[in-house]
Amino acid sequence: xxxxxxxxxxxxxxxxxxxxxxxxxxxxxxxxxxxxxxxxxxxxxxxxxxxxxxxxxxxxxxxxxxxxxxxxxxxxxxxxxxxxxxxxxxxxxxxxxxxxxxxxxxxxxxxxxxxxxxxxxxxxxxxxxxxxxxxxxxxxxxxxxxxxxxxxxxxxxxxxxxxxxxxxxxxxxxxxxxxxxxxxxxxxxxxxxxxxxxxxxxxxxxxxxxxxxxxxxxxxxxxxxxxxxxxxxxxxxxxxxxxxxxxxxxxxxxxxxxxxxxxxxxxxxxxxxxxxxxxxxxxxxxxxxxxxxxxxxxxxxxxxxxxxxxxxxxxxxxxxxxxxxxxxxxxxxxxxxxxxxxxxxxxxxxxxxxxxxxxxxxxxxxxxxxxxxxxxxxxxxxxxxxxxxxxxxxxxxxxxxxxxxxxxxxxxxxxxxxxxxxxxxxxxxxxxxxxxxxxxxxxxxx
Length: 446
Description:
Elements: H1 4-13, E1 18-22, H2 29-33, E2 39-42, H3 49-58, E3 70-73, H4 81-92, E4 98-102, E5 120-124, H5 142-147, H6 159-168, H7 179-200, H8 208-219, H9 228-236, H10 245-257, H11 288-295, H12 299-303, H13 306-327, E6 330-336, E7 342-349, E8 354-359, H14 364-380, E9 391-396, E10 409-412, E11 430-434
């Protein structure tokens, strides 16, 4: 991961006075931020936190003194530092002044905190993609798919390794460890969430056991559009205590502020028919290992339950697609209409280009099903009002007999993504690439 954040942060600092790096705990925001910074203020240093908080109230600008770029780690501990940074960026009128890192949105955020628009760029740092953790070769670029470039790759990744990667997750500290200690990292993260972090994030006391039950219930909804009320009812099953809707929303809000939960919003394209499009978010964690740790399951359990493994694999794909979409200045959405037609991931770029992706855990029939769904969706899009898809991709574990012909399909193995900045990951499965109009031939253009 060393190559990832410093380069992107450097680029942003060249055009902005400050960069805000946010994301879950344990993703090494401070570690990588220090590679770019020339001075550091650690707000969570145990013996200094109270003094720093007092100074932030009395004279916040003193905390900003130091060589630039100056890293302020866990800045949300003293939220008024935000306005101080904004003021100092204006006063100095220079680029590359500050790097702010934080693992939660400040509890005290309010109207007094200026947005920082035009002064402070935001960078979301996730857990590591498979390419960053060197679990893939990075042969295929999401950016290349949008540009219509030729794609080719091979893969021999075993199902057992996939199961392990789902449970290990992309935590930097876990990468390179033997299996047992590697799997403990996600478990430790979940334990910290329910024991302390979910209460500390906004200074609201929350029940540890209820937090555990919520994470388990949420893990059972991964990849679905189940309502929060359904999740609440699942939590209450076989329990005599109460958990009203407002309390649930409070817990969900805390998990979102800590970057534990990251749902996919609904995509609303221009379609020819009047089919109603579902607007409920699709449920995901920021990393699939949060779900497996919350459920208390490991690689062997996933191999014995391929349905559950399929949802976890979908969460993994969504995580990595988001990393590359972020770099391409794009967003990730989900599509589903009232007739059940859906698309697991829609990557939409600022220029209006988009790609459609189906994620399946299955063989030939699953790939064909995904491909047909994508073609059906593409046929509904009103291309007089928006572009046709740049590409359509259906991915599944393996395919023994690649199809050619009317679908204009092409094999693409999974551990292959990477290279969009140096960022495209190797995906672990075989991909069927259906070339979208106007490219209608077997090989992608060079």
